[in-house]
Amino acid sequence: MGVATAPPPPTTSKTLQKQYLEAVGAYQYVLTFLFMGGRRSEWIRNQAIWRQLRDYYPVKLVKTAELPPDQNYVLGAHPHGIMCTGFLCNFSTESNGFSQLFPGLRPRLAVLAGLFYLPVYRDYIMSFGLCPVSRQSLDFILSQPQLGQAVVIMVGGAHEALYSVPGEHCLTLQKRKGFVRLALRHGASLVPVYSFGENDIFRLKAFATGSWQHWCQLTFKKLMGFSPCIFWGRGLFSATSWGLLPFAAPITTVVGRPIPVPQRLHPTEEEVNHYHALYMKALEQLFEEHKESCGVPASTCLTFI
């Protein structure tokens, strides 16, 4: 099938009020991500503030193939970026009309399990349909009698955030195979997803591999589950000052074609490696097919670590 894209925001020049509302939409997500931490709520997912967040960058959602709701899916999301903004906007809100592009699917964005130990933050993020990225939680979702479950996993996780350098496309994937085992246990199709521009909305201080700073980041990740990053955006009232407001760089999330996976309650390593290789190839193909239309130079390639 052809590529379907969610309708973009109007291209007319923005009023000062519109720019202000978009900045507020982007900034409130940053503050929520950093400092706030119910159950899934369609009312929360359809709030107007998410459309302002969408228009600020802007964020787009591109569909390349049908995902029939008569089966379940495991969507691998890449890259993690600093705050997974494109994935939150497209899968956890209706700002780009996910339910219209993929009718019958119920997306669940899987995030760090430790976030759900914070009472207020837990209820808030659960209203988006977020869930812990734990085996127990993901097995429970994909075991539901109602088909059309779509689990979205940031495969590279916190480690990949350390490589969120603008213009670079470095993915932590070579040894990440748990999501493939999950898909095999439930017979859920694997779907590669790439969010172009996710690494461009903040500036990151990247430390060389082997340096003491990088060692500290990895050690902290082992202890706490996430990696501390030194990052910055622009100021809330001035584009030339430092701050936490992200830079307004376009983000385009492209959902690839599904890879059929058989159900194996106890998959062998050979089966896991086979479907992992198929997934990596499909992801690389997705990147190559869409990179130039998303502003990435033709000479740029994905790097897997």
Question: Which descriptor suits the 3D outline?
Answer: globular
- Secondary-structure-derived class: alpha/beta
Distance between the first and last residues' Cα = 32 Å
Strand order of the largest sheet: 1-2-12-8-3-6-4-5
Polypeptide structure, described:
This protein has one domain (16-304): Glycerol-3-phosphate (1)-acyltransferase. 40% of the residues are buried. It is built from 11 helices and 13 strands. By secondary structure, the protein is of the alpha/beta class. The model has no long low-confidence stretch (mean pLDDT 89). It is 36% helix and 17% strand. The longest helix has 22 residues, at 269-290.
Keywords for this entry:
single chain, 305 residues, alpha/beta, Glycerol-3-phosphate (1)-acyltransferase, 8-stranded mixed sheet, 11 helices, endoplasmic reticulum, Acyltransferase, lipid biosynthesis, EC 2.3.1.-, membrane
